[in-house]
Amino acid sequence: MNRKLLDEVGKGVKSALVKKKIINHYIHNGGSTLTELSKDIDLSIPTVTKFIGEMCEEGFITDYGKLETTEGRYPNLYGLNPDACYFVGVDMRQSSVNIAIINFKGEMIDLCMSVDYHFQNTPQALNNLCKIIKDFIDSQTIDKSKILNIDINIFGRVNPETGYSHSVFHFNEKPLPEVLREKLGYPVTIDNDTRAMTYGEYMAGCVNDEKNVIFVNLSWGLAIGIIIDGKIYTGKSGFSGEFGHVKTYNNEILCHCGKKGCLETEASGLAMHRRLLELVNEGGTSLLSQRAIDNKQITLDDIIDAVSKEDVLCIGLVEEIGQKLGESIAGLINIFNPEMVIIGGTVSVVGDYIMEPIKSAVRKYSLNLVNKDSKMVVSKLKDKAGVVGACMLARSRIFEN
Fold it and tell me: How many CA atoms lie within 13 A of 188 on its CB side?
C-alpha cells in the first residue's frame, strides 16, 4: 500500500505528485481541515476531498474526527496516519552513534543514544556502522516492511543529491547510499551532520514560526546550517555551511583542511583544547592541569565538565571562544538578516558561559537595525538535534517536491 504511492511518484504520475503535496502539508502543519488544505495547496475543495478519500483508503491519511468551532458546522480534522510508515535516523559521531525511529507523524518510537562505535575511515568501520543499524532495526516490534528510508549523518562534505561523501567512506565510484542500501536492505539517504542538526531544531526544537534561520554547530569543529524561506539551503554541490573554513586570522595555525588562518583554528572545540594545553604549559591552573602534564587524553567533554565545576581557566577559554565566534556571527547577521540564530553543538551545553560573550560581540560588531530582529538562542534539542534531524530528513526526502 505504501510502496504503491512511492511507485506512482517514481513514474511521475500527476495524482501522486498531488498526494506528495498533501503529505508535505501535513508534515509541516500537523492536522488541518479540508478547507485549510485546499487553500495551502491551491486546489478546489472537491478535488482535495477526492484525494483525501483515496489517501484514507491507502492508509496514509486518517480522519481525526470533528474540530470544535465557535460557529457553524464542525469540520473534520485530517492528518497523517502514524502507523502508515516509519523512518530511521542515524547520527554518526567519532566515538558513538545515536539512532532512532519515528512514525509517519514524526513521533519518536525508539531512541538509542551513545551506542559504542569507533569511527575510522575504513570499510570495516562502515560495516560496523551497518551492524549497529541492523541490530537496532531487528530490535523493533513494528512491521519492518513499513520502514521507507534510513538517513545517516556524515561529518564533512556531503552532497545529499548525488549521494557522494567527499570526506569519509568514499571507497569506490558508487554513491554511498547505493552501497548502504545493498548492505542494509532499505533505501538510504545521507546528509551533512550540521544540516541534520539544523533541520532537527527547525522541525522539533526551538524554532516556531521563523523561516530564516542559521544554526551554528560549535563542536570539535565549526559549521553552520542555513534555512531560507523554510527550506534547507545546501548550495550548488551540497557543501554550504563551511563557516569554520572562512579565512579570518593571520595566524600560522594549520587547519585540518590544509589551510592557515581559518576561523575554526581560533573558534572551535579544537581551538579550546589547544589553548588549554598552551595555558597549562605556561603555568595556568585547571582541574585538568595534571592530565595535560601527564599527556593523558583530554576530550571536549572533559573541558565542558570542568566548566560545569566552575574551573576558572576553562570558563575563560569558553568566553574567549565565544567572543571570537560572536565577531564572525555578527558578519553572518549583517549578510543574512536571519530571524533566529541557534547556537548548538557540543559546546553549547555550557549555556550562558558561551552565549553571553557571543551576544556581546554580536551587539558590538553587527548593525543595530539588522540584529535587533535576530533572536539568539541556545539549542533546545542539544545532543539529540542530530538524530532527530536525521529521522526528519529520512521522512522529508521521500516526500519532498
Answer: 22
Residues 139, 269: Cα–Cα separation, whole Å:
35
Neighbours of 400 (CB within 10 A): 13
Query: Tens-of-pLDDT digits for all 401 residues of the chain?
Result: 455 555 654 455 688 889 999 999 999 998 899 999 999 999 999 999 999 999 999 999 999 988 766 566 778 899 999 999 999 999 998 889 999 999 999 999 999 999 999 999 999 999 999 999 999 999 999 999 999 999 999 988 899 999 999 889 988 889 999 999 999 999 999 999 999 999 999 999 999 999 999 999 999 999 999 999 999 999 998 899 999 999 999 999 999 899 999 999 999 999 999 999 999 999 999 999 999 999 999 999 999 999 999 999 999 999 999 999 999 999 999 999 999 999 999 999 999 999 999 999 999 999 998 989 899 999 999 999 999 999 999 999 998 75
What is the C-alpha to C-alpha distance for residues 152 and 158, in angstroms, rounded to an integer?
A: 11
Which helix (H) or strand (E) element contains residue 265? none
Which DSSP symbol is given to 245?
G
DSSP one-letter string for 113-164: EEEE----SSHHHHHHHHHHHHHHHHT--S-GGGEEEEEEEESS-EETTTTE
Beta strand ranges found along 193-310 (DSSP E): 213-218, 222-228, 231-232
Instruction: Find the length of the chain.
Output: 401
Question: Which three cell numbers, joined as nine digits, stand for 248?
Answer: 579570518
Task: Please classify residue 274 by burial: count the beta carbons closer than 10 Å to its beta carbon, then call 0-12 exposed, 13-18 middle and 19+ buried.
Answer: middle
Phi, psi of 342 (to 5 degrees): -105, 125
Full set of structural domains in the chain with CATH: 2-80 (1.10.10.10), 86-198+386-399 (3.30.420.40), 209-379 (3.30.420.40)
Cα 354 to chain centroid, rounded: 21
Which of helix, strand or coil describes residue 225?
A: strand
Kindly tell me the sign of the dihedral angle through the C-alpha atoms of 125, 128, 134, 135: negative
- What does the alpha-carbon distance between residue 395 and residue 59 come to, in Å, rounded to a whole number? 16
